[in-house]
Amino acid sequence: MILNKIRAGFILAFTFFLTLSSCESGLTYTEAPESTYSEVGISKFSFKSRELFKEKIFAVNWNKWVPEYMNDQYIGETLVADLVIEEDANLPEGKLYVINVELNNHATYKTSNKGYLFDGSKFTGSFELISPSDNRSEEVKLPVRKNEIIGEMYLVSTVHCIVEPQGDAPKLGIPADFSKPHRYLVKNVSYLPKGVERFTRMYEVRVTFKP
C-alpha cells in the first residue's frame, strides 16, 4: 500500500515536471524597448541622519519615560540636474557621474506629537531644544554623527535597474561613513535584444558638510 502511494507520487511529480518543461520550451521573450533597457539614470541622491534616544523623551499622558525612540531626518540632497560629468575612458560610457552633496552638520529631530517631549535634563554636550517649555520640547537640534549617515539613491527605473557598491563603498540605506568618495554602479538588468551590451553607469558620491 505504501509502495503504491510512493509510485503514484513519483509519477505525479514526473508528469508535472514534463508539463512544466514543455510549457517553458514554448515561451517567447518580448524584447524591451531601447528606452527601457538603456535607462541607467537617477533622479536624486539624498542623505539622512539617524539618532536613537534612550529614556530622553517623556510621555506626558502616560507619565513615564520612553525606553527607546529612533528618528531619521534629511540633511541634504543633490538632484540629477546638479550632477557633474567627468571623462574617464576606463568607465562605462567613458564617463564618471559625480554627485556632490553638501550636508547640514546639525539635524532637528522630532517626536511623534506633543504628547511626547524631549527633556533637556537628559541631554549632555551640544544640543538645543526648539521653543521649549519647562525645559521640554517636541524638537531637539543635535550635531550630525558624520560617520553614521544614511545615503539613498533614487533610480529612474527601480524595476529594471540595480545598484552595486564598488570597492569598499557602503551599502545604501543604512548608517555608514561617507567621509571619502564612494562609487556605485547602476546596472540595467532588462532582457536585451541579441547583440546588445548591457547598459551601466558609474556614479561617485562626494560629501561635504556645511560650516
Description:
- The chain starts with a helix and ends with a strand.
- Mean pLDDT is 89; it is low at 1-24.
- It has helices at 2-25, 34-37; strands at residues 42-59, 64-79, 84-87, 95-103, 106-110, 116-119, 128-129, 136-137, 139-143, 149-155, 161-165, 175-176, 182-188, 200-209.
- Strands 1, 2, 6, 8, 10 and 12 form a six-stranded antiparallel β-sheet that branches.
- It is mainly beta.
- The longest helix is centred in the first third of the chain and has 24 residues, at 2-25.
- The protein is 13% helix and 45% strand.
- The chain is elongated, with a radius of gyration of 26 Å.
- A hairpin with a 7-residue loop joins strand 3 and strand 4.
Could you list some keywords that capture this structure?
mainly beta, six-stranded antiparallel sheet, 211 residues, five-stranded mixed sheet, 13% helix, 2 helices, disordered N terminus, single chain, elongated
In whole angstroms, the N-to-C terminal distance is: 81 Å
Using DSSP, what is the number of strands?
A: 14
Strand content: over 45%
- Relative helix content: 10-25%
C-alpha geometry: elongated
SSE layout and pairing:
Layout: H1 2-25, H2 34-37, E1 42-59, E2 64-79, E3 84-87, E4 95-103, E5 106-110, E6 116-119, E7 128-129, E8 136-137, E9 139-143, E10 149-155, E11 161-165, E12 175-176, E13 182-188, E14 200-209
Parallel strand pairs: 4-14
Antiparallel strand pairs: 1-2, 1-6, 1-10, 3-4, 5-9, 6-8, 7-9, 10-12, 11-13, 13-14
